[in-house]
Amino acid sequence: MSATTAGRLPRRRSRRRRTWRRAIGLAAETIACLLILVWTLTPLYTMVSVALEQNDSIFSGDVWPAHPTLAGFWTVLTENYWYVARFWHEMGNSLIIGLVTAVLTLAIGTLTSFVLGRMKLRFSWLVSNAALMTYVIPMSFLAIPFYRVMQNYGLSNTLWAVIFVEVTFATPYAIFIFQQYGASIPIELDEAARIDGASPWAIYRRVYLPLMKPAMVAVGTYALLLAWNEYLYMFLLLSSPDKMTVPVALGQFLNSDEAPWNLMMATAVIYALPPIVIYYAFRKHMSAGLTMGGVKG
Questions:
Q1: CA-to-CA distance for 50 and 175, rounded, in angstroms?
Q2: Sorting pLDDT into bands at 50, 70 and 90, what band is 60?
Q3: Dihedral Cα 13, 14, 20, 23, nearest 10 deg
Q4: How far apart are alpha carbons 66 and 71 in whole angstroms?
Q5: Which domain of life is it from (predicted)?
Q6: What's the pTM?
Q7: Cα 85 to chain center, whole Å?
Q8: Residue 235: which residues within 8 A CB-CB, separation 6 or more?
Q9: Residues 221, 104: one domain?
């Protein structure tokens, strides 16, 4: 055997080992992805399958309903059952809380980031860091203090109570993202506007806000979804039926001996549709805003 042939054998074996390692790695990644996909979609699949089932056949053990029906969805949409008699009113309350939370979060976040980042105030870093420090305490730990505060100010059992709570928790994140994103906007634009006689308010409205749109879409969507998916503070702060939201109303399903699981899941599916539409409608803007905010300093 020549030296050339002897040298080729180890290289071939090395290539084969690398090929096998790649194949094994790819197979492991595929299996892991499939397991994660199944783990993620199983609750959603169960929710939809129960919504399509008749209430007396829910615990039949079938993987998929033997006779799927949309009657549960129609009952919810037409409010043709006492459990869902105020569904659209509750949906409206959830929408009001989500939209107002998003608007207030954007207003407070952009104004704060503009003042701290563009007007060069002393100790601005202390204010932004102090805002982020609020996330050290979990939201659930502050439930009783917030309840006492809202009672003291006469805001208990009002939509504003939940809105103020959600804005409190969404604003620090908004300030952080806006400050990081705003650092990518050249300060020379502000200086040029000042030379032309623009006031700080005019610079904020005509220069800062238009350039912050990607970040505003990302943060606004985040704030809206945060409020939309809230349950603890809605349950704690809202007590009367006319102030109730869909998540709290879903919890009321379990307060009776008769639990229409198909209607509960149909309500949950309908309630989950707006966030899905919002996310996919603004997905590109959210990625651009959050990515820019994460890499610019």
A1: 41
A2: low
A3: -140
A4: 14
A5: Bacteria
A6: 0.80
A7: 28
A8: 247, 248, 251
A9: yes
Query: CB within 8 A of 150, min separation 6: which ones?
Result: 156, 161, 164, 237
CATH number, residue 97: 1.10.3720.10
Supply 227's token pair. 């409020």
Is 270 found in the same domain as 128?
A: yes
Instruction: Give the dihedral of Cα atoms 251, 256, 258, 261; nearest 10 deg.
Output: 10
Contacts of 181 (CB under 8 A, 6+ apart): 212, 214, 215, 289, 292, 293, 296
Q: Which residues of 86-115 are buried (b: 16+ CB within 10 A; e: fewer)?
A: bbebbbebbbbbbbbbbebbbebbbebbbe
Q: Are 286 and 221 in contact (CB under 8 A)?
A: yes
Note the pLDDT tens digit of each residue in 232-281: 889 888 888 888 899 888 877 776 667 788 888 899 899 988 888 887 88
Structure tokens at 203: 């610079």
Q: Let me know: does 249 contact 241? Beta carbons within 8 Å.
A: no
d(CA 167, CA 177) in angstroms, rounded, equals 15
Residue 252 lies in a domain: yes
Q: Domain range holding 187? A: 76-295
To 10 degrees, what angle do helices 159-182 and 283-295 make?
Answer: 60
Q: Residue 25 and residue 33: Cα distance in Å, rounded?
A: 12
Q: How far is CA 262 from the centre of its chain?
A: 26
- Per DSSP, the three-state class of 65 is coil
Name the pLDDT band for 296 (thresholds 50, 70, 90).
very low
CA neighbor of 285 nearest in space, from 206, 224, 228, 222: 222
Q: Please compute the mean of the pLDDT values over residues 9-17 and round it to a whole number.
A: 68
**Structure tokens given for 123:** 């100790």
Say yes or no: 47 and 182 in one domain: no
Position 203: which residue type? I
Own/partner contacts of 200-203, CB < 8 Å, gap of 24 or more, are 200/119, 203/118
